[in-house]
Amino acid sequence: MKFATKQIHAGQHPEETTGAVITPIFQTSTYSNEKLGETKGFDYGRTINPTRSALEANLAALENGKYGFCFSSGMAAVQTVINLFKPGDHIICTNNVYGGTYRLYEQVMRDFGMEFSYIDTSDNNALKNAVKENTKFIYVETPTNPMLNITDLKFLAELSRDKKIVSCVDNTFMSPYFQNPLDFGVDIVLHSTTKYINGHSDVIGGCLVTSDEKIAERIKFLQNSIGSVPSPFDCWLVLRSTKTLAQRMKAHNENAVNICKALSKNKQIEKLYYPGLETHPQYELAKSQMSGFGGIISLDVGSYEKAVDFCNALKIFQIAESLGGVESLVCHPVSMTHGSVPVDLRNEFGLTVGLVRLSVGIEDIDDLLADIDNALKSLN
Fold first, then answer.
1. Given 67, 98, 196, 273, the catalytic residue
2. Which helix (DSSP H) or strand (DSSP E) does residue 227 occupy?
3. Which of 46, 66, 163, 243 is catalytic?
4. Which numeric CATH code is attached to 245-377?
5. Among positive and negative, which fits the CA dihedral 334, 339, 340, 344?
6. Could you report the per-residue pLDDT of 70-100, keeping only the tens digit for each?
7. 248 is a catalytic site residue
8. Tens digit of pLDDT for each residue in 295-321?
9. Domain limits of the chain?
């Protein structure tokens, strides 16, 4: 099946009792056994739930994977995947990683004896040279948040396989519609399903997808043992949302491309970041491993004061954390999503106080362009 068909049908079948086309919300914490020791495959809601199982199968299919696992948040998924490793293990991580991931690694997991190196994973030589004898895991965001740097997925997979290192890609910015890291040989894909997969800004969630049976068995054990699973209702909401993922991603991408065309001519903007721009340093790589460029645009207006004025002048773009919803949002990463990242590390990958991140929604493009134009004019 092709993507638009899988998003509607994968993991879902008419409900056996009534024939309901839509997977029901199985709002139960436990299940009755007809006899002691005999179950129908369901025993306890933390361990398994039919609504969650349907969503997990759906997301696995969309990522061309075999096994899917859902969590109560994207950070719960990050916590679970890092628990595949132990004290003394060395982890390589993209330097421009989401601030919450950096905070977890540095302020929690280092206390348990794990070693972390933050590098520019878009630089193949830097990635290769960062590997140590005790390197067990490479965690990559591509495109990165918010600088939109691109890591070579084929190189990542080959390096990891050669060195017997587990690789994981946070694919949140692209969604399974535009990018499928497992197809390149990456071991694990992670999503904050809060973002594009759900796309309606009404659910917090995360997921992991893999085709490796051994890794899947361990993730399943950790999912049950840690217990940070989503509610059946949240799973139902996300499963509803995946049915329109292709259509939404096309609209996000189209609007973002049109906005970039307009912004590339605006002298108020010092730097413009978007992988769909020919001026992007990894433009050709992006084209080779992504089928679209997504709905996230970052732009630098030159100073903190201008960034504040720009954000405050926007009317349709709402100032808010998060991204990937049908509504357009604007974020100032230094004071919002990446506030926990040290200044020296931010400077290393170019995150300045003048940078703002646009999550381009699916509103009418003329309205979005007018909103941005008016906000930029207010900087004069």
1. 98
2. none
3. 46
4. 3.90.1150.10
5. positive
6. 999 999 999 999 999 999 999 999 999 999 9
7. no
8. 999 999 999 999 999 999 999 999 999
9. 3-242, 245-377
